[in-house]
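Please fill in the sequence for the structure shown.

STRUCTURE ENCODING:
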């Protein structure tokens, strides 16, 4: 953790992460598949995604809200979909999604295996050209504050977008039970614009 003045918020986040992951781990493969289809359907109703030329996304693993149905639907619409490749320092490089056959399973040390794009690497700054950035997470609260997985990769992405003056729509994909009243946030945390769950889309007040 590279946060300064860690303490309350960090340990609260760790506890919450464990709780949300425990609930996800009870989902069956059928639950995940059905949710993924519903998620894709609702996500495509979001005007930002419907009109996006370039979407930075990710490939879900395990019981995470499924993204493949959405990636394929975006691609079928002609959107360019960028997927992350984890770098040794936890930063993210990007590659274009060219269908399920264009993914390779990559084991990162003792951490989870991720599915990454096999094609050319476009560099960490490729994300600054996205119209929409889909963020993984474990929860989002009424203010649009996102509880991330704790790896810090997306903090790097958000900081890079800010430095570049890029203003993509930030959208988090979650299960319904993960939209909560409050998650601990730190001053540098940025709210997301919308959350998509299997039951629909929710936008956050005060966001365009």
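FILLED IN BY: designer on duty
SEQUENCE:
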């Amino acid at each position: 953790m590279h946060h300064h003045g860690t303490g309350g918020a960090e340990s609260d986040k760790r506890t919450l992460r464990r709780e949300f992951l425990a609930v996800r781990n009870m989902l069956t493969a059928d639950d995940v598949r059905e949710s993924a289809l519903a998620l894709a359907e609702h996500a495509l109703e979001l005007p930002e995604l419907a009109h996006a030329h370039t979407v930075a996304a990710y490939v879900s693993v395990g019981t995470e809200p499924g993204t493949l149905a959405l990636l394929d639907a975006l691609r079928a619409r002609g959107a360019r979909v960028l997927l992350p490749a984890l770098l040794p320092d936890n930063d993210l490089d990007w590659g274009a999604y060219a269908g399920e056959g264009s993914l390779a399973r990559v084991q990162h040390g003792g951490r989870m295996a991720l599915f990454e794009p096999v094609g050319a690497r476009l560099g960490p700054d490729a994300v600054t050209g996205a119209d929409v950035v889909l963020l993984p997470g474990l929860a989002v609260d009424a203010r649009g504050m996102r509880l991330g997985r704790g790896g810090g990769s997306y903090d790097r992405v958000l900081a890079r977008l800010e430095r570049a003056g890029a203003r993509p729509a930030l959208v988090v994909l979650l299960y319904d039970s993960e939209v909560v009243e409050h998650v601990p946030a730190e001053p540098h945390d940025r709210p997301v614009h919308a959350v998509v769950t299997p039951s629909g889309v929710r936008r956050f007040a005060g966001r365009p």
